[in-house]
Amino acid sequence: MAAGASLADTPEALWSAADVVVKVRPPLPTEASKARPGTTLLSLLQPERNPELPPVLQSLKLSALALERIPRVTRAQKMDVLSSMANLAGYRAVIEAAAHYQGFFSPQITAAGAMPPARVLIIGAGVAGLAAIAAAKSLGAEVRAFDVRAAAREQVESLGAAFLQVEIQESGEGAGGYAKTMSKEFIEAEMALFRKQAAEVDIIITTALVPGTRAPILLPKDVVEKLKPGSIVVDMAAEQGGNCELCKPGEIVEFNGVKIIGYTDLASRMAGTASRFFANNLVHLITEMGAGDKFRVDLENDVVRPALITHGGELLPPPPRKEPS
Ligand code: NAD
């Protein structure tokens, strides 16, 4: 209120008064029923996971933008909530690992004894994985990482981590700069690599995702068995089924003295910063759409159109995806 906003008494009052509704989570199908036709909704919508939602938004004649569909291009980076939240979550994954790990991350040479640095393996070097590498390095750990996309190598090495490889040659680049589903042979080669790595490392953070599919299983039980007691796994893919076979979403599982952390709310564990970054992204998006009276849903706008799933009573299919730049 100090910032000039007014508080609605009920969600219905808010929906019926607003021209633009900004949300973090998708609305429940019943929630938007009081919205006026033509209202713009800016929210994470995940229509693949909530197939009942688009027809409801269509029948209410909302212009609904799914924030997760904002294109991952340089021009739209400041509006990209997926990147902001993945960045926070990757950092927080390391903090959670450090809180549960009973050793130092940085090497120690003390009168009471010497300790080598913690060895950290990061699987998947997208936005979250790179943030995790930077956080683990800044705590003094020795970090190694693996990704199926060749482009990740330079980014991993520029953060001072070692990039691991498998013998088998297969391109991991899929549509839109994301990874593709890898062959069974490649996944087996990866698991052989991780089995060897598990005998050496103290902490594994997994972030491997392929859009539109369940997360690949990369740490089966026999790989976890190779980890020393006291080791930590943080499975950042928990919400999409998990990269670790033993992961339970939202829980910490203990197996042979190894803790497997399956938190699905890593960004929310830094709620203040997550809110600030999310709000900044949304301010940039609203500014892109036009400040004040100029605000409009422009179907020609190359950031707005890919995110738009319903408009003017129509369901809009996604336009062809452009490569990230
Ligand atoms: P993501 O969350 O979909 O996946 C995380 C990582 O898992 C990816 O790096 C992927 O290659 C990796 N992965 C998938 N299967 C794997 C397997 N079997 N083994 C190991 N790793 C596996 O990815 P993301 O963080 O959202 O990034 C996706 C792409 O978009 C990246 O190329 C990123 O650089 C790009 N991007 C570009 C911008 C931009 O504005 N230009 C912004 C954000 C992301």
From TrEMBL:
<feature type="domain" description="Alanine dehydrogenase/pyridine nucleotide transhydrogenase N-terminal">
    <location>
        <begin position="1"/>
        <end position="89"/>
    </location>
</feature>
<dbReference type="GO" id="GO:0006740">
    <property type="term" value="P:NADPH regeneration"/>
</dbReference>
<keyword id="KW-1003">Cell membrane</keyword>
<dbReference type="GO" id="GO:0050661">
    <property type="term" value="F:NADP binding"/>
</dbReference>
<keyword id="KW-0547">Nucleotide-binding</keyword>
<keyword id="KW-0521">NADP</keyword>
<protein>
    <recommendedName>
        <fullName>NAD(P) transhydrogenase subunit alpha</fullName>
        <ecNumber>7.1.1.1</ecNumber>
    </recommendedName>
</protein>
<keyword id="KW-0472">Membrane</keyword>
<comment type="function">
    <text>The transhydrogenation between NADH and NADP is coupled to respiration and ATP hydrolysis and functions as a proton pump across the membrane.</text>
</comment>
<keyword id="KW-1278">Translocase</keyword>
<keyword id="KW-0997">Cell inner membrane</keyword>
<dbReference type="GO" id="GO:0008750">
    <property type="term" value="F:proton-translocating NAD(P)+ transhydrogenase activity"/>
</dbReference>
<keyword id="KW-1133">Transmembrane helix</keyword>
<keyword id="KW-0812">Transmembrane</keyword>
<comment type="similarity">
    <text>Belongs to the AlaDH/PNT family.</text>
</comment>
<keyword id="KW-0520">NAD</keyword>
<feature type="domain" description="Alanine dehydrogenase/pyridine nucleotide transhydrogenase NAD(H)-binding">
    <location>
        <begin position="98"/>
        <end position="262"/>
    </location>
</feature>
<dbReference type="GO" id="GO:0016491">
    <property type="term" value="F:oxidoreductase activity"/>
</dbReference>
<dbReference type="GO" id="GO:0005886">
    <property type="term" value="C:plasma membrane"/>
</dbReference>
